[in-house]
Design goal:
Helix content: 25-40%
Number of helices: 4
CATH class: Alpha Beta
Number of domains: 1
Shape: globular
Order of helices and strands: HEEHEHEEHEE
């Protein structure tokens, strides 16, 4: 049986050079009634600030973990996202859309779960700003 300690795993990930991801590169996409909406995460964050939505504690037990995030298709993808989870912090709340779907913050959610937290700081958008792009898919 093969066993790798967390320390060894962190050293292995540390040897791989991953590109830096800028907030401006992040988008959130959702489909509602046959229309795909694409939002820039930086715009959603600014919108939440402008609307003065309140930060609250979201129980981690209430988050649906059944979907695969980030388009993972390879072991390198897994290593990349584990590196991001490891490096993330909890300075900013996660962002939830008007339907209860996480728009920004999955790496923080995963880190909180891995650290044994019971909740995470979150902001819920009560409505959505205009999408940066829309596309009919039906």
């Amino acid at each position: 049986m093969f066993s790798v300690t967390l320390g060894v795993f962190k050293r292995i990930i540390g040897m791989i050079k991953f590109e830096t991801v800028e907030l401006s590169d992040h988008t959130f996409t959702k489909t509602v009634h046959g229309t795909k909406y694409v939002y820039e995460v930086s715009v959603l964050i600014q919108y939440a600030k402008e609307q003065k939505y309140k930060v609250f504690d979201l129980p981690l037990a209430g988050i649906n973990l059944s979907d695969l995030m980030w388009g993972i298709v390879s072991m390198r993808d897994i290593a990349y996202h584990l590196d991001r989870i490891n490096k993330t912090d909890f300075k900013h709340p996660i962002l939830i859309d008007d339907r209860g779907v996480i728009c920004d913050g999955w790496h923080r959610v995963m880190k909180a779960i891995m650290l044994g937290h019971n909740s995470i700081k979150a902001i819920r958008l009560l409505d959505m700003p205009l999408a940066s792009n829309t596309e009919d898919i039906e």
